[in-house]
Amino acid sequence: MPITLRKLSHALGAEVCDADVSKPMSEQRFGEIYRAFLDHNILLFRNQDITREQHIEFSRRFGELDRHDALPRDRHPDHPEILLVTNEPKPGGQPADTKYTGRQWHSDMSFTLVPSLGSLLRCVSIPDVGGDTMFTNMYLAYESLSDGMKKLIAELHGIHFSGTRKIVDLSKEREEEQKRITPPVAQPVVRVHPETGRKALYIGEKVKRFDGMTEDESRPLIAFLCRHATRPEFIYRHQWRKNDIVAWDNRCTMHMALGDFDETQRRHMERTTVLGTPSGYVVA
Ligand code: SIN
To answer: Residue 269: CB within 6 Å of ligand 1?
Structure first.
């Protein structure tokens, strides 16, 4: 039986209605899921009460997984393929390293030389209200620019930084450590999706300037592109339920975790990150 899809918003997203990702899946069935992933850019799988091993195994169907060497403090100690996104304090009571992960518009691992193909985020625990994630369609963002703007940005490279979080929680020492592991990387502002051949805007709030330009010169254009890319008509806002898995294509979407919830309640998510193709260069 072919998979059943339900659209999640006008701009992007579909729910795969009848999937059990813990069960063995034929090549043909996974092929249909992957086709839907390319067509809809994000996929939702509800009610997936699965183990970490099953999460990893299903994610591997999308491609080789990142072991998160660029974010060594944030990965699960026994499963490097799993990145924790949690506000649960450490055993000693200190805040979690990943408390503010994702609280700005971004595409995963854009600050590395192998930006991610896609990510699969599993909801383990969510507050009573809030803690949603917003996604935006970067094909539409690019295609709706004027020809003049497309020409202006065609050759630009944005410099992506890893440690610039919206709510800065990094100690000086942690910031220096992160800079050593992941020096700033320049990425094209327009990327061609390797599988669909469509052009997508590649920008976000981790970009601080364009290569060859100062921060002052770059700021207005970065701000415009981010504002444009996150217009309501390009967005899907996901309200999480426990055991949801959302898979997104990082090559043609951006996302942002919202901090609109009671921080005394637990929000615990676990993410696998599928490696993409090499892109960009390190900037001194
Ligand atoms: C992430 O940016 O990968 C995390 C998103 C979220 O926690 O909603």
So the answer is: yes
